[in-house]
Amino acid sequence: MASFFITTAIDYVNGLPHLGHAYEKVLADAVARWHRSRGDDVFFLTGVDEHGQKVQQSAQKRGIEPKAFCDEMSGHFRRLCEGLGTSHDRFARTTENSHKRVVRQFLQQLHDAGDIYFEQHEGFYSVRQEQFVTEKDMVDGQWPEIFGEVLSMKEPNYFFRLSKYQDWLRKHAEDHPDWIYPAFRRNEVLGALEKPLGDLCISRPKSRLAWGIPLPFDEDYVTYVWFDALVNYVSFSGWGEPGCRWPADVHTIGKDILVPAHGIYWPIMLRALGIEQPKHFLVHGWWHLRGEKMSKTTGNVIDPLELVDRYGADAFRYYVLREMTVGQDADFSPENFATRYRSDLGNDFGNLVNRAISMIRRYRAGIVPAAAIEPVVKEAISEARNGVAEAMDNFETHRALERIARLTQRGNQFVDERAPWKLAKDPAQTAALDSVLATLAETVRILSILVEPFLPSTAGRIQQQLGMDQRETRFDASTPDGLLAGRAVGEPQPLFPRME
Ligand code: MSP
Predict the structure, then answer these.
(1) Per-domain residue ranges for the chain?
(2) Atom of ligand 1 nearest to the CA of 294
(3) Average pLDDT, the chain
(4) Pocket test for ligand 1, best of 18, 25, 81, 286 (most atoms within 8 A of CB)
(5) Atom of ligand 1 nearest to the CA of 233
(6) Other CB atoms closer than 10 Å to residue 8's CB: what's the count?
(7) Whole-model pTM above 0.90?
(8) What is the pLDDT of residue 476?
(9) 262 C-alpha to center of ligand 1: Å?
(10) Reading across the β-sheet that carries 131-133, which strands appear in turn?
């Protein structure tokens, strides 16, 4: 059994989750479920990023202790995952002791190896980005908006020797063309490596920021939040225990945190620690609303759980995975959501399932006839299987769902062409009707397997109606055909009911 380890970014808990966070979890979940369906031994890690200045400030504003604030806020992210039906195996919180221990152990190791040094630093500090910036970052003599307030600061701090590993990283990026998906994003990393890398300030004096992990070699300082957060991927993988899941096969992240955090800091940290590199980054784009990035700072957000409450988790998952071309940006539109729900899910998919099951009940007392699957549909099924597999191996959920839609349309067209209600009236057409019904049962069976990564609860409901057992829901079970012959189907249920 192949092992497969996938992560999402861990979300800052200084604000409530929005559709952008929900998308990333659903994307990683679809990939995780796809691998489980292929029989892989999957470990799916998600969670929250709880330290740092933003969290400390938000807690202060509320007048509560940071830990109490994090306990409350991480609950919202946990409930988001439950609402979305994600199948994660572990929900990481960076305030857990086991994580803090690993961060401190890594810092000590880098310090002992001479990769961390202490130096008086004079410069500028961006409060919003929680990092030192230089005059080179100015645009037309002004600090860009994204930095928020910039303070001039003189402060001794600890630095990590990024520069020492620059040449290694360039070579690593060059030697691994499939390291970052989509491929064009690798250029962002290579581009950033064209200029000399400065070393990374990895400490904050406690007098300024108390909410962090204390440095093991100087308790007057806490660890820079990114240095703490990135380590979660290793610390929650069962590090130091038998069966540890590291290295990750896929880190799912948004495009804003590829450079420098994941594309530069993280590989260099691992390299300096002598730890294996993650195999791939899956970098998605941004959800926009009214033409601007959805973001809690601006309040330009859609609450994913509101949509889930109204339409169901599967409808939400379908919309985001179908609408966004993985890697590109997409615009959220409530009208478009409603249309996809009504037309793709209700009129096409739900309708096909309902027709197939209802007709088997009406014309064959609910027993799937033993008959050959009609060749045209058989071919469409096989194309869909291959198309979905190829798309998902490239993380292209939108393409996988297109292939599924094509098979669904073919199924509906087949019903219209063969008109089972006419065949049922003619005793000479008994065998033909058997074959049509067996073909429909087969189409719906395969569809239920193919949609599982995207519409897990719908897939389960269809499989229950078809009387399929657990072993039969895996992708490899999508052959041989005719598996359902002789089985009794259940009561058809409306999968995507009409909305007023
Ligand atoms: N805490 C860091 C990540 C640390 S990972 C070791 C962070 N948190 S975040 O809450 O700001 O973002 C979490 C994830 O949500 C990121 O991958 C980010 O790209 C994603 N999104 C936040 N807003 C988004 C959209 N509007 N659209 C899609 N995803 C975006 O960064």
Answers:
(1) 3-284, 331-478
(2) 26
(3) 96
(4) 286
(5) 6
(6) 27
(7) yes
(8) 85
(9) 12
(10) 131-133, 116-126, 150-160, 200-201
| Residues 322, 359 contacting (CB under 8 angstroms) | no
Q: How far is the centre of ligand 1, averaged over its atoms, from the C-alpha of 405 (Å)?
A: 30
399 touches 391 (CB < 8 A): yes
Could you give the 3-state DSSP secondary structure of residue 239?
coil
Q: Between 394 and 147, whose confidence is greater?
A: 394
Question: Whose CA is closest to atom 21 on ligand 1?
Answer: 20
Centroid of ligand 1 to alpha carbon of 73 (angstroms): 16
Name residue, tokens 């009236």. Answer: 425
Query: Which amino acid residue places its CA nearest to atom 30 of ligand 1?
Result: 20
Which residue matches tokens 């406690």? Answer: 206
Ligand 1 pocket (Cβ < 6 Å) reads: 9-12, 20-21, 23-24, 49, 229-230, 232, 253-254, 256-257, 286-287, 293-295
pLDDT of 494 reads 93
Ligand 1 centroid distance, CA of 24 (Å): 8
CA distance 458 to 35: 18
CATH topology assigned to domain 3-284: Rossmann fold (3.40.50)
- AA identity, residue 351: N
> Looking at residue 480, what is its pLDDT?
66
Q: Which CATH code for domain 331-478? A: 1.10.730.10
* Nearest in space to 201 (alpha carbons), one of 110, 313, 117, 288: 117
pLDDT in tens, 92-122: 999 999 999 999 999 999 999 999 999 988 8
Average pLDDT over residues 334-346: 98
Q: What is the pLDDT of residues 266-304, one digit of tens each?
A: 999 999 999 999 999 999 999 999 899 999 888 899 999
